[in-house]
Amino acid sequence: MPSASPDPVQPTAVPGEVAGSVFTTPDGIYSFLLPAGWEAAAVEPLDLPTYGVELSASAYVISDVSGQPIARFDGGVPGDGAALPSPDHLVFDSELLPHVEPESGLPVYFVFESLPDYEEGGRLYQARLQAGKPAFEGMSSQMAGKIFMEHNDVFIFTSTLDETGPASEEEARQWMETEQYSQLRAMLLSFAVSPA
Fold first, then answer.
1. Which residues pair with residue 69 across a beta bridge?
2. What is d(CA 6, CA 64) in angstroms, rounded to the nearest whole number?
3. Pairs from 58-64 (Cβ < 8 Å, separation ≥ 24)
4. Considering only 2-16, 36-50, 182-196, which range has the smallest mean pLDDT?
5. Looking at residue 43, what is its pLDDT?
6. Is residue 187 exposed (0-12), middle (13-18) or buried (19+ Cβ within 10 Å)?
7. Rounded Cα distance, 127 and 161, in Å
8. In this predicted structure, which of 107-116, 134-143, 183-192 has the lowest mean pLDDT?
9. How many CB atoms lie within 10 A of CB 80?
C-alpha cells in the first residue's frame, strides 16, 4: 500500500516564474517543484523483481490544476541497463540538468520529443528526463527514460500525454507556448536527488 504523499513545503519559484512548492518523497531521496495547484498522489510502485537488492521504492502520479494526470515519477526501480536503438525521434526542446549525476556518467537532460508508437501506430509526444544528450532527429534509446543512479538504482520521470496531449507536430509546437507546458517543463528541470 503506498504511503500518503507528504505535504509540499518550501514555497519557491524557478526560471520562467513558475510558482509552486518543493515536493520531497518520504525517504528524502527525490524532490521536485510541484507547480501551484498541482498534486502528487502516491500510487503502487512498479512491481519488478529486485533480486534481493534493498531499494526505497516510491511512485507518484502528478495531476495539473484541472485534475488531469500529466506525469508519473517512479523511484527505486530495479533495472539491468539493457537498451535497444529506437529510430525516428524528433526533439522539440531539451535542457541539461547539471545537478543530477547518474552512475553512468551520462548527462541528464529534460527533453520534449515525438517518437513512434510501436503499439498503436502513429506518433507519441512525451516530455521526460533522460540520460545522454538527445539526438534531435533520428536514433534514440528505448531505455532513455530510465536513469541509473549509484544509489537506489533507477528513477523514471516522464509525462503521461498519450490521450490528452498533442496529436501532431503542429499541436506540439503550439502546446509549447502554453502555461501547462511551462509548468511541466519547470517541474522536470527542478528534479533533484539526495542520496541518504
1. 63
2. 17
3. 58/2, 58/25, 58/26, 58/27, 58/29, 58/30, 59/2, 60/5, 60/25, 61/160, 62/34, 62/38, 62/187, 63/38, 63/39, 64/35, 64/37, 64/38, 64/180, 64/183, 64/184
4. 2-16
5. 92
6. buried
7. 8
8. 134-143
9. 11
CA separation, residue 62 to residues 80, 105, 110, 152, 161 (Å): 26, 28, 17, 21, 12
| Cα separation, 148 vs 96, whole angstroms | 16
Q: Regarding beta strands 146-148 and 137-141, do their DSSP bridges make them parallel or antiparallel, or are they unpaired?
A: unpaired
d(CA 76, CA 59): 9
Cα–Cα distance measured from residue 153 to residue 67, given in angstroms and rounded to the nearest whole number: 30
Q: For the sheet with 192-193, list strands across it.
A: 9-14, 18-24, 30-35, 192-193
Give the strand pairing for 39-42 and 30-35: unpaired
- Cα-flanking dihedrals φ and ψ of residue 11, to 5°? -50, 140
Q: Is the pLDDT of residue 184 over 90?
A: yes
